[in-house]
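Model the whole thing, not chain by chain.
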Amino acid sequence: MSTTTSMSSRGTDRRGAILEAAAVEFDERGFGAASIAGIAKTAEVSQGALHFHFRTKQAIALGVIDEQNARTFAAVTFDDASPLGGLVQASRTIAGLLLDDPVVRAGIRLSLENRVFSGATSAFYDQWVASVVDVFRLAVAAGEVDTTISAEALGATVVPWFTGVQLVSDVRAARADLLPAVGTMWRVLAHACVVPAHRDRLLAVVDRTFACPTA
Amino acid sequence: MSTTTSMSSRGTDRRGAILEAAAVEFDERGFGAASIAGIAKTAEVSQGALHFHFRTKQAIALGVIDEQNARTFAAVTFDDASPLGGLVQASRTIAGLLLDDPVVRAGIRLSLENRVFSGATSAFYDQWVASVVDVFRLAVAAGEVDTTISAEALGATVVPWFTGVQLVSDVRAARADLLPAVGTMWRVLAHACVVPAHRDRLLAVVDRTFACPTA
């Protein structure tokens, strides 16, 4: 039994190591230029072992996208007292992953640049929009957000807004300005939809969360 | 002289035909899968003629990106009476180009999906942010927009916001919901920064500009 557990555990570790290595390759070289041989070498596994876990380069990329989804979704926690404040914190966690985690960096890049992954990517964005809409509904219920603009419309625009902010920050500045750029997004949103009684508190959360020591 | 003019004009036409054909190839197949031979065939020119205008596939792609920049920038007109209203109209024109013009569709796709073009793309976004910041400065001067959030911050977030809205609309719905999604962006922005005396007028402009007959 212990042998089985150990092998299973080693298989999971090896699969994870392949995904991490593939993410570095995809993030640095793009999907087209990355090679199975290069991924196997970086992961320190044989091409046979790699093939056991993933049949094609496309399957590896889908694995990276799935893992990115899992890691970024794990950042979202529902804060009943301040649903919008919780979402601000989640966006900071995800921004941190975009700065530091090759799997998240590669996953978002793959999902946006290759139509071959658009099925997976489309479902991923549907799921994000639905979750963020839920947060705005909770924020309305908690009295943080007014209903001049519907929770559905707010959720449907915040997800692409964050997507564009991180993408343009990547293109213009290799994400050096990502944190202040996400902070600006939340400040504009707070002025658009947060009720006056909660606005200063939420703006303070945004300033605290995205303040850069050197800014 | 007339011969020279005619040849020069034919050269320009041929270069334009190559860019249009390349845009269709890049938009449908992506940069990696598009081929010089396929582009030459679609443009109805010899590979020699294509090579005279563009040395490499990368040079063709940069030509498409440049042409996209020119066509989208041409949509921006400064409206002294209502600078923000003018920007809303410009965004509608650009959304229309994203729906209908293969050069604009391919140019934005190429500029976002390939790091090999990030030099050109970065300059392109810098130029867009600077221009949109200028519009917000004019809107502040015209009394449309308040200064709670700076014109610099508003311009720096509207450009990635629009970028993300069109991209996520492409991924989720092949841009079927692009017009209402851009309308939502402007409604949120109007509530964040337009002074009360101008808000209803600008919201009416947004509704009129992005209303879909079937929505």
